[in-house]
Amino acid sequence: MSHDILIIGGGVAAAHFCRGLRLAGCVAPILMFSEENVAPYERPALTKSYLVGRKTPDDLAILKRNQLLDLNVDARLGVECVEIDVDARIVRTGDGKVVPYGRLVVATGLLPRRLIGVPQGVRHHAVRSLWNIDCLKRDLTDARKVVVIGGGWLGLEIAAHLVDLKKSVTLIDAAPTVCSRNAPSAISERLTNFHRMREVDLRLSTSILAMSRDGGQVCVCLSDDTVVRADVMVEAIGVVSKPIESAGALQWDATGVIVDGLLRTNCADIYAIGDVSRVTPDLTGVALRLETWANAVAQGEHLARVFMGGNARFELDTWFWSDQSDQNIQVVGFPHLATEVEEVIATENEMFARYLLHGQLIGAASINRFKEIKLAKREIRKSPFLCH
Amino acid sequence: MKNEAIVTWERACASDEAMFDDPKAVTIKGREIGIFRTSEGLFAVDNICSHEYAYLTKGLVEGGVVECPLHEARFCLKTGGCLQGPATAPVKTFPVKEEGAAIFVLV
Description:
Chain A is α/β, with parallel strands linked by helices. Chain A is built from 8 helices and 26 strands. In chain A, strands 1, 2, 3, 4, 5, 6 and 19 form a 7-stranded mixed sheet that branches. The longest helix of chain A has 15 residues, at 293-307. The model of chain B has no long low-confidence stretch (mean pLDDT 89). Chain B has strands at 9-14, 24-28, 31-38, 41-46, 60-62, 65-67, 74-76, 82-84, 93-94, 96-99, 102-106. Chain B is globular and about 40 Å long. A 4-stranded antiparallel sheet of chain B has the order 2-3-4-9, with no helix packed on it. In chain B, strands 5-6-7-8 form a 4-stranded antiparallel sheet, with no helix packed on it. In chain B, 39% of the residues are buried. Chain B is mainly β. The A-B interface holds A 44-45, 49, 54, 293, 297, 321, 328, 370-371, 374-375 and B 52-53, 58-60, 67, 69-71, 86.
C-alpha cells in the first residue's frame, strides 16, 4: 500500500507535524517509522527533571500510542529505514520491507557523537534518548564520582543535576569557555562561576590524552598532567547526522539536510524538519542547524501548513533555554554576531543583555529574567532578518 | 462518597504585594498559587504550569492571560483554560477576594 505521507523519525518535529496536519483537517494516510521503540516524547526534561526523578516517561509523552491511533497515524516503532530510492519513490526498512511514498519527511533527529577509545567494561553513556538516560540513571545509583566530557548545554545540565543528586562531578572540555559554540560570553562566564561554586571540578582548555580502566572505574588522563577517576562517564560532545543511503540523490551529509524556506530538500517531494534540517537565515547567509525544541516544534507545525497549501517561508525560531539547577538561561537571536552589547540587568543571580548589530536588536540572553527575554523574543521574531 | 477537604478563605498576601505587572507567588495549604492583578480583575490560579515545572507568576501577563516563562503556553486567568500549547491541561483557578488591604483565596 502506498502511503501519501511517510515520516522517517518519531520525535518532537514529527509529532507536531502529524498533529498539525490533522488539526488542519488533512485526512491523508500517514505512516511513521521510528528507530526508537517509544512513541514521540519530549527530550528537554531528559537532562533535567527526568534525570533527577521528578518526571516519569509518561510525563514526557507528546503523543502516546493511543493518541497516534486517534490521529490515524500508522506508527511503526523500533523500525530503521536503510535506504531511500528517490527515483522509485520507495523507502527500504531494516527488516526488508519496501514502502512506497507520495511525500517523504525526513525527521530523524541526530545521533550523539561518541568518544573513541573508551576501554571495555567502563560505564559510559551518551545523552540523547530516553534509553540513554535510563541506562545512565541505572548506573548512577551506586556511583559517587562522575566525569562529564563536554561543556556544552547538555554537559552543563547533566553536571548541575548530578550535583543535585549529590554526585562528585568533574567536567572536561577542550574549549577555554563553557558553551563556547553559541553562548554569549557573559552567560559563559556566569555559568563557569556557578558550576565552580557548586564544586563541579571544571577543567577547561583541557583535552583527553588517554583512557584506561581500573577495576570498575574509568581513568581519564588529561592534558593538564592529571588523571581523573570516575565510576561513570557521560559523553556530551555534540551530535552528528547519519544519512540514510539514497544513492547520492538526496543532499544529506553528517551536518544534516539543507532545506529551503518551505522546508524542501533538493529532491522533489522530500522534506526535512527538526534537528536534522539546516536552514539559511538572511543574516548569516550560512545554513544553520538549530538543535532546539522550539525549532523542532515550529518546523513540524510549519511543514503541516505547507502540506495544506501554505506558501509562507519558514521563519527561524532561534530561541532556546537551558535549566541548570536553579538557573534558567534563555538565548534568542544571534548574540555572537552583535557589534554592541547592552547589559540591562546584572545582579548576582540574574542577568539580561541585549545584543545589537548597527543599532538593530539581533539577540538577547537572560539568566532568571523572564519578562525581559520574552519581550526581546517578540521583538526579534518580528525582525525580517530571520527569514530565509 | 469521598470526603471533600474543608475549603476555607485563607489570607494570601497584602493587597500591595500583588501589583499590575508584578504578580505574587504564595503557598497556601501546601499549594503553590499565583495572585494576578490585571486590567480584567484579580485572579488566583495554580502557579505551576500544567506542562513543565515553571512558575506562572514569572511569566508575562497581558489582559487576563498569562504566558508561561519557559515554553510560552498561555492560560486564561479567569477560567484556567489553556489557550496555547505546548500545555494541554488547564490550570486550577481559585475564588479570590480583597478585603481590608489583604487578598484572600478560597482553598
